Amino acid sequence: MFAYATPDDYTLYCPGSTLSGYELNAALERASSQIDALCYGRIRRAGFDNLTEFQQDCIRRATCLHAEFLSAYADALESPLQSYGINGVSMTFDANRVRQQGGVTTSGEVYGLLLQTGLAHRGGVVMKWPQLVKPWACKVPITITLTDGIDEDGAPKTFATVETHCSCNGKGGWSVDEHRQMVRYTCTVLIPGDIAPQQEHLTGWADLLGKRLTIHAADRARNPDGSVNFTKLELM
């Protein structure tokens, strides 16, 4: 099975561990299989490379920590007994610090990382995060022209044009530009989802309420799993 983490990831997240070589590779493969089981097989079905960067990072770290957990508590995990004691000395897992799901036992830290991805929740579908900017509240038409660099004549190169509706706050405010100077922007608009998933930085202008305004700043508000909940643009 394809391991969700590499030995280099393991060294980063579990410094000082004694696992190495073939033993480490085997531990990461076993941990990956159990991580997928804790996520109800959703990682394998979706494809690890198709997940968001945030989800991938959480899964890599969870895989390393779970491999360390399996190594540290191998004897106890393979025992059919929940607790064991001799002459007043006993051992048992603290129910507040471990999680059990589908026959897999892991630490609370590992399970918490998987919950953040949205893939480890019970039910037949991946957790759907609430949409904070409601479509019914976006009634103002807006045309956004996104640019990507300049052409040979020094004019901005158009990357895409997005026609949609937004929620508009016309009060404006103050912000800091790339030169660390205070500038005043005209309004803030909120748009559900990601208006341009293929473009990392949102630059350009917007035609709004009969005015052409420059995009001064842009921000993608992200859910815990890394997906974009809404896009915020400051226009001036």
Question: Summarize this, please?
Answer:
This protein is of the alpha+beta class and 236 residues long. It is built from six helices and twelve strands. Helices cover 28% and strands 34% of the residues.
List keywords for this structure.
236 residues; alpha+beta; Thrombin, subunit H; six-stranded antiparallel β-barrel; 6 helices; 12 strands; 28% helix; elongated
Largest sheet: 6 strands, antiparallel, barrel
Query: Mean pLDDT across all residues, rounded?
Result: 82
Helix and strand pattern: HHHHHEEEEHEEEEEEEE
* Count of discrete domains: 2
Strand fraction equals 25-35%
Number of H- or I-type helical stretches: 6
Gyration radius (Cα, Å) is 24 Å
Overall body shape: elongated
Extract low-pLDDT stretches: none
Using DSSP, what is the number of strands?
A: 12
Task: Summarize the structure in words.
This protein is α+β, with helices and mostly antiparallel strands. It folds into 2 domains: 7-117, no CATH class; 135-235, Thrombin, subunit H. 28% of the residues lie in helices and 34% in strands. The chain has 6 helices and 12 strands. The protein has helices spanning 7-13, 21-38, 42-46, 53-72, 74-78, 108-117; strands at residues 83-86, 89-92, 98-101, 104-107, 140-150, 156-169, 173-176, 182-185, 187-192, 204-208, 211-222, 228-235. Strands 5-6-9-12-11-10 form a 6-stranded antiparallel beta barrel. Strands 1-2 form a two-stranded antiparallel ribbon. A hairpin with a 5-residue loop joins strand 7 (173-176) and strand 8 (182-185). Helix 2 crosses helix 4 (53-72) and helix 4 packs antiparallel against helix 6. The longest helix is centred in the N-terminal third of the chain and has 20 residues, at 53-72. The protein is elongated. The termini are far apart.
